[in-house]
Design brief:
7 helices, Rossmann fold, 242 residues, single chain
Length: 242
């Protein structure tokens, strides 16, 4: 079933190759993420409806690096596993601007990113906040594989307002938002901020490591959700045939 889904993923070939390679290193996912990963996958499987978007909002402080990476890698993993209804969004508690290093890390695996030509509202730091179009493939099952991304609060009007999963990827946002208004489930999945390596000799490597760590988790979440969905369908078919 999964092999068929991958063959018809709609993903750009470079992205598909990247995720296929990432598949062989899923054992590197930290044990600390296992329980929340499985809880989220179960929620996805229980609420999945073919053809209907299932939104996940990834939340960090600045909505500039980790939240952008995970939201996009959830989108890629959803298409890869034949579940393009899983749609990643991002937001922050104190938005700033999407960081160019995160964009570079995504472009390196085949994501098409270009400036949309307009700026969103500036955050507290007063930085320019350009909007970007992200595209990861052709339409799949009638669903577009592209999105408009910029730094914003998690409750921005461009994000879903209710019934979404909230994924907290930094300790600061996790502590600042014990309750995420509108979320149907809230999970804590913290990652080290690659910002600490900005301007240093290993800056590019730090973003690749962060992207791949986040990518493994995104892929594992969607793979487990797919396994649960398939198991549910098989069980329903067995019941119907009796």
């Amino acid at each position: 079933m999964l092999i068929s889904a991958v063959a018809n993923s709609g993903l750009f070939p470079e992205i598909q190759a990247y995720l296929t390679e990432l598949m062989i290193s899923l054992e590197q996912i930290p044990a600390a993420h296992a329980a929340e990963r499985d809880r989220l996958a179960k929620w996805i499987a229980e609420h999945y409806q073919a053809g209907t978007e299932l939104p996940l909002i990834v939340v960090c402080t600045g909505n500039s690096r980790r939240s952008v990476l995970l939201s996009m890698l959830l989108n890629l993993s959803g298409a890869y596993c034949g579940l393009p209804e899983i749609r990643g969004y991002s937001g922050g508690t104190h938005p700033s601007a999407v960081n160019s290093r995160a964009i570079t890390a995504l472009r390196a695996i085949g994501v098409d990113v270009w400036p949309f030509g307009t700026d969103a509202s500036r955050g507290e730091e007063g930085l320019p906040n350009p909007q970007y179009q992200f595209c990861w493939g052709r339409r799949l099952f009638g669903l577009s594989l592209e999105t408009l991304e910029f730094s914003k609060t998690y409750h921005d009007a461009s994000n879903p307002q209710s019934g979404f999963g909230a994924l907290m990827v930094c300790d600061e946002a996790d502590a600042a938002c014990p309750i995420v208004t509108g979320a149907a489930i809230r999970v804590s999945l913290p990652f080290v901020d690659p910002k600490a390596r900005d301007g240093l000799a290993d800056e590019a490597e730090a973003y690749v490591v962060c992207r791949d760590d986040i990518g493994r988790l995104a892929l594992a979440i969607v793979l487990e959700a797919r396994r649960l969905i398939d198991a549910s369908h098989r069980q329903a078919g067995e019941v119907a045939s009796t």
